[in-house]
Amino acid sequence: MIDAVIAGRRRGVPTLRTAANGRTFATFRISAADHSGAYVLVSCVSFSASEFDPCSALKDKGE
């Protein structure tokens, strides 16, 4: 697993899912600029329940 700090805007709505072990996690995407200024779509996962609401509260780029 790679830990990273990414700055960008959320794209779409976060999705809550349940793992095989019964724990909930959220998946979402962020549009972020790379070192050359081109935008890339980054798929993200949050396993921390304390982060689900803040992830959902972020505005979509289209909003």
What does this structure look like?
The chain is built from one helix and three strands, in the order E-E-E-H. The protein has 63 residues and is mainly beta. The protein has a three-stranded antiparallel beta sheet, covered by helices on one side.
Describe the secondary-structure layout:
Elements: E1 9-18, E2 24-33, E3 39-46, H1 49-57
Antiparallel strand pairs: 1-2, 2-3
How many strand elements? 3
- Can you write the helix and strand succession as a string? EEEH
Mean pLDDT: 81
Kindly give the count of domains: 1
Biggest sheet, open or closed, and with what strands and sense?
3 strands, antiparallel
Which structural class fits the helix and strand makeup?
A: mainly beta
Oligomeric category: single chain
End-to-end C-alpha gap: 31 Å
Could you estimate the helical fraction of the residues in percent? 10-25%
How many helices? The count is 1
Catalogue the unreliable spans.
none
The neighbouring-strand order within the major sheet is 1-2-3
What gyration radius follows from the Cα positions, in whole Å? 13 Å
Strand % is 35-45%
Q: What does the overall shape look like?
A: elongated
